[in-house]
Write a structure and sequence with these properties.
The protein has 463 residues and is α/β, with parallel strands linked by helices. It is 57% helix and 9% strand. The chain is built from 23 helices and 8 strands. The strands form 2 sheets. Strands 5-6-7-4-8 form a 5-stranded parallel sheet, with helices on both faces. A 3-stranded mixed sheet has the order 1-2-3. Helix 12 links the parallel strand 6 and strand 7 (260-265). Helix 5 (82-92) packs parallel to helix 7 and helix 18 (372-382) crosses helix 23. The two termini are 31 Å apart. It binds adenosine-5'-diphosphate and magnesium ion. Residues 137-139, 144, 171-177, 294, 302, 330-331, 334 line the site of adenosine-5'-diphosphate.
Amino acid sequence: MDTTSLWQAVLGEIELGVSKGNYVTWFKNTRLLKVKDGCVQVGAPNIFIKQQLEKKFDDLIAETLRNNGVKYEKIEYRILPASSLHRRVEDEAIVLQNQQQANPKAGPGVSSRQGASHSSFTHSYRLGLNERYTFDNFIVGSGNELAYAACQAIAQSPGAKYNPLFLYGGVGIGKTHLIQAVGNSVVAKNQNVNIVYVSSEQFIQEFLDAIRYKKNTDFAGVYRSADVLIIDDIQFIAGKEKTQDEFFHTFNALHQANKQIIITSDRQPKDIPTLTDRLRSRFEWGMAIDMQAPDFETRCAIIQSKAGTHNLSLEPDLVDHLANYVQNNIRELEGVLNQLIAFCDMRGIVPTAEVAVALLGNAKARPKHLNAKQVVERTAKHFQLTVDELVGPKRDKEIVVPRQIAMYILRSELHLSFPKIARELGRKDHTTAIHSVEKIEKEKAFDNEVRIAIADIKERLYA
Ligand code: ADP
Ligand code: MG
């Protein structure tokens, strides 16, 4: 059994169910060690993560394993040996050795936790771009063509146009892929260009470490010597004032020197709560592009292309089925495809539409026309409220939580904009929608009742 593909499918699903922060912190570096004799062994990089998985996420992992067809009696959590962690780092992130030589400041000294495997992981990942993400294997279609064109232009001559480039849009639609493709393309042309790719969570963590260990100047030096600075998922910087200040100064220094800055987010700058005004206005200086989930045809092309990397050519019926099955999230689409390929691989059969239906079922298939009204009605019904109550003025807890859950589902399933979500629930102010979605995202990770309610509502919506 191919545990890697199976775990990839499981993680893909978990990623959709927890907040990005939780996913990156607790799940990203886990592994499936074995599935044998009724026992599933999950590896975690350190004791801290192991404990959290046991305490907080055991149910979620158990449920997701079952969803992926794994039968077992117990789950055991193990700490991964440091050597396997290192291997994974090398597998995943191509460490840009040349850059390190060209820029000695960017050496391991930046992180003060030298020696710990965690520290070296952070380090390699920050300077490393995943070489899997290129322009060549990015399928251009509706929803991403503008972003693609802007990224191409930047890769041609960084810093010349669209500075900063601010890409925003829902989860799993190719933001990270595109911005990493810019980095990879620039490096391919000129090994001496200093690219710094970092998620905003890593940026925050390193900044805090730098203060804690009084290495502030090293930290600033690394970021300010970038020729191209790529910051992924900037929304997590919300509320972190000191980090925002630091980033503001980095931004100015680079921008003044005509260095390229690329930023992504799940929403536009004006919808990131507690973003300082001066940073917001900086983000709005250049070009902001809204990326949308690709349409049916583009999804079909993506499926064919991904299957191609497994040396498979899929029959058209199967491609159609998959493209309908997952509509909004390419990461999820990839997960489903990998799950299917692993399933067929193990049995030595050819993937067909019938096999896909048998494995994935039709029931879960997304109806094409799920709309906001259905979500609101279904949520009201689940909580035994009337729609009027749900969208009405009352602020009792019994109504507020269901209302927030409805907002969350509108965001996660239909990818509506926050102003639209607010309107659907009878709210004038769209920041209410932002806070509600965030609150439920967090609560989902530890509140079983919330998670079950969401799963139940979704199940019925898609039944
Ligand atoms: P985001 O950063 O927007 O959440 P990612 O860039 O991580 O999304 O994309 C999720 C997955 O989907 C990645 O594996 C990526 O390669 C793939 N993907 C997304 N859009 C495309 C596309 N247009 N062509 C090929 N692969 C894509
Ligand atoms: Mg991303």
